[in-house]
Amino acid sequence: MALSSNFWIWIAAILTLAIYSFLYKDNPFYKFAEYLLVGISIGYGISVYWHNTIITKVFNPLVYDKNFLVLIPLLLGLLMFSRFFKNVAYLSRIPIAFVVGAGTGLSVPSSFEFLFKQVYATMPTKLDIGIIIIVIGVISTLIYFFFSLEHKGFVGRVSRVGITFIMVAFGAAFGYTIMARVSLFIGRIQFLLSDWLGIIK
Amino acid sequence: MNIFLKLSKVDRRFIYIFIALVVILPLILKPKFPVVPTKPVQDVYDYVENLPEGSKVMISIDYDAASMPEQQPFLEALLRQLFRNKLKPILVVQWQLGAPLGTTALEKIARETQAIYGVDYINLGYRPGYVAQIVGIGKEIRDYFKTDYRNIPLDSFPIMKNVHNYNDIDLLVGLEAGATYLVWIEYAGGRFKQKIALALNAVSAPDAYYFYQSKQIIGLVGGMKGAAEYEALVGKPDLAVAGMASQSYSHLVIIIFIILGNIAYFVEKSRKAKEGGK
After folding, report:
1. Distance between CA atoms of B73 and B240, rounded to whole angstroms?
2. What is the 8-class DSSP label of residue B172?
3. Claim to verify: residue B78 and residue B216 sit in the same structural domain
4. Long-range contacts of A29-34 (CB under 8 A, 24+ apart)
């Protein structure tokens, strides 16, 4: 066992334990660690945005490259702040309209291809148990969400198959979620036992 | 029957202690646990193995510290494979809080393999833009990354010579904790036909398997389990492989708790029904 002599590893270890203390009950140590995390994340985020957006994308092109075209996106960005003033709040719709318009224009053609590839992948190109399950799953799930017909008789039976597929998907997602949470815990325990306490290598 | 009722009312903190023990003990005792690669992970490994020497692999860091245990082992294993095969990683970051994580892994493995910055690998860092940037790289990467993460002009690095857009990138590997991978698939993959491999957090992985089935991605590494498989394939078991025993035992315990909880629920339900019937 070789206890770490690194000051920052001690800080990280103490904060990890402070966060996990919540599992016993809510307490000031947990609250301190939580607020510290939120504050540092926001502070770091703002500094990154400042250097990578305001300085790189606005200040440098304006001051050094004399590129006055950046005034247009700058003005659009500033108009977003008009929401804070009731009498001119409507001006914020201009940049929103720009973002929605550009976003939709970019997205529509790509979305079609995105979707068609999925549809194509559902077409049975060979007789394979996997593809048969996929076809039955897709059709029955779509019928479950088809509300123009009452879910009774044949439609009811197919939609019951659909809900079974949906439940299997939920189960798989839940299983993966457990794996993700346990992984995070394992990561922290590895840090505590290895980097901090030096019990494992 | 009484024992199930008592179990259903057990203090949740005892369950936490139990799970903690099941995670900690295997990490200390280190039981041998087989790690068998699955096809989606094997496909990523094989694709990288078959890339010709000097190929450029763009790695996108789209996660932050909350996903470190799942993503960092895969990133390190992938970088080991890239440097071993003389492939050239180009690191970009879409999640600003992930920038230090990507840099740490890149520098660590580059030191290990004596790779030279600017020649064998480069770190372009974080730039804002998201969708616009991902689409923009399809035209010219310098429109968004004029410099590397230390503000050194891109054209001063030999690795970036003749790298302009997706045509010059042989593979894109997205390490994903959120939904950024959808944008990579939709624009880089759909519009620019960029080959994409994904490493997703276990939470997101089930939502991405259908992209693998539809061949919109070449392979998928899901969570710590996927990272462990990749470490095993690369031949250097590390943190993810070490965590697999804890992962498996804790899953077993959770399954037992779920079964006991359900039995307790039905016992309680039937008891209430009987009391109601009296």
Report:
1. 6
2. E
3. yes
4. none
One domain, residues B101 and B176: yes
| B128-140 per-position pLDDT tens digit | 888 999 999 999 9
Chain B CB within 8 Å of residue A41 CB? yes
Query: Chain A window 165-194: which residues touch B at a Cβ cutoff of 8 Å?
Result: 169, 172-173, 176-180, 182-190, 193
Can you give the pTM of this predicted structure?
0.90
Total domain count, chain B: 2
pLDDT at position B96 is: 87
Domain containing B65 equals 39-236
Looking at chain B, which residue has its C-alpha nearest residue A171? B206
Report, as an integer, the average pLDDT of B184-201. Answer: 95
ipTM of the complex: 0.89
Same domain, B103 and B221: yes
Instruction: Give the pLDDT confidence of B210-222 residue by residue, as tens digits.
Output: 999 999 999 999 9
Both tokens of residue B216?
């919109």
Are residues B26 and B118 located together in one domain of the fold? no
Same domain, B219 and B118: yes
Coil, strand, or helix at residue A172? helix
Q: How far is A173 from chain B (nearest CA, A)?
A: 6
Lowest-confidence segment of B73-77, B131-135, B171-175 by average pLDDT: B131-135
Neighboring chain A residues of B254 at a CB cutoff of 8 Å: 178, 182
B143 and B257 belong to one structural domain: no
**Same structural domain, B13 and B141:** no
Instruction: Find chain B residues with C-beta within 8 A of A103's C-beta.
Output: 131
| First CA to last CA distance, chain B | 19
Residue B52 is given by DSSP the state P
